[in-house]
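quick one before i forget lol
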Amino acid sequence: MRHSRRWLVIGTALLFSVHGSLAAQSGDTLVHVGKGAPSPSAATIADALRQVARHGQVLVHAGVYAESTLVILKPVRITGKPGAILDGQGARGLVIVNSDSVELRGLTFRNTGSSHTDDRAAVRIFESIACVVAQNRFESTFFALHLQRVDGCIVRENTMQGLAGSQSTTGNGVHVWSSRNVQVEHNTITGHRDGIYFEFSRQASARQNVVTESLRYGLHFMFSDSCAYESNRFVANRSGVAVMYAKHVRIADNLFSDARNSASYGLLLKEINDSQIVGNDFLNNTIAVHLEGANRNHVSGNRFEANGWAMRLLADAQENQIRDNSFFRNVFDLSTNSQSHFSTVRGNYWDRYRGYDLDRDGVGDVPHAPVRLFALVVERAPAALLLVRSAVADALDLLERIAPTLTPATLLDQAPRMRATVRAPSAQLVPARRSNERAP
């Protein structure tokens, strides 16, 4: 009996010893950082990352942390209290993540400085699954967030402000390369080269973001299939939005406005196939939608208002369906570069339509030719645009309405609507107009 008690005591002691040893190896589940922080605490974020257990949390208290670039190699959550700032002092990126299940929340990242030798980012994440970057601020960063070969990551409710200067001195807001299932939602992004950039990615989405004043594109998208862009606001981005070289893309309920430079597009569609462009608003752009080498797309339920060119449909854009859209106060509703076309334009509302509806079924009884004769002249001689508001342009358009001989027959709307479709504005918000003038 006495020997049994002795072995019980020894066994219990060994059990607690092993448990304590494992606990020491695994670290604390919560580590504080900052002066006056409660225990367990660390003086720097780097020290806290060494102490914290896998899947633990580092809680960063208010203060400016000008540490060397942090490297995260294990699952961990880093949360910033109000006033927690990581500062690169204009010389370095701030965080590199190479682990699954890392979360960064509530922090301010600032002052990375620019670089012409590497894609310097406030936060770089590569070869990671299920990362989360949420409710952070990025101030004066080259690339704010750079994602490479990630899967199932979420970028949500962040505010990003790029470096002032030119395209060469600032990077992208959210840069996603060779990744899958990335969700970019509810972010506010301004002043970067491209606000959101996707390349070689699949099943990605961008929803309810506000992207303004990008030095190039608000959204730049290449070689990425089966993605969705919904309920975003792209406003006053220098070159607008470019979506290229992909298929099965859904672009719905977005606002594209105030892309007003000479080579700006509300939405540039180049070699986009089998996709949907539905329910968007295009306001006050130089060229609202440009289709080039884009095939079998459905462009429907969109509103085009006060643009220079509402839609440029080039001859190499084939088998597209242009239906149930509304065109108001555009200089040119539809323009093309050829008399040969294989797309369908039908059932749209045109404010220039001068036909009639005797049977009152809501559909015009005579076709509408949306391609102005003067638009064809401008396509061949761009300098003629100087005469766009002249009597010469009006006379040419009147001639084409009386005897439409140059408008491609397939681009005649055989069933023009008498009334525009009434719906709520895209993205639920319409920006303040800077001018009542039409785009050039």
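fyi Residues 238-371+407-440 form one domain.
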